[in-house]
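User:
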Amino acid sequence: MTAVRRLSLVTDEGPVPAPECPKGVLRIAIATQDLKRLNAHFGSAKLFAVYDVTPTGWEIVEAVDFGEATDESGKHTNDGGTDRITMRVEALKGCHLLFCLAIGGPSAAKVVAAKIHPIKVPEPSSIEEVLTRTQTMLKTAPPPWLRKVLADAGMGLAKPFFDDED
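Assistant: Predicted structure:
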């Protein structure tokens, strides 16, 4: 069985476990091969960079390392029957959004069942670009699917008040 490694921040007191996501913060996972770019498919990403994002900033929470990655050719290594997808979903529990280049239907269903909203991005981009776009979505009028995610994250936006009286 392949082990999942969590690369967490370390302080003078030692390693810090991944904190619970605070209310009012959007936790996102980004599929990556190098911790610099969103450049991987969900099922074959070597790493997931996990960030907490608010309208005013972001910070890295941890990097989740799955060790071996495939070449994204559709062929996977024989890992002794391990359910790689379930292992990945379990490792990302607590995230609200998942950004990746691609995700298969069965994998997407497992991700959604874990209350993580998958977002397929058509082309690789820097992690900073993903974080900046996420902040822009938070600052502007988010689409309905994101409003639901934000409500679940404790970032519920006030519903517009329409007053017909002038």
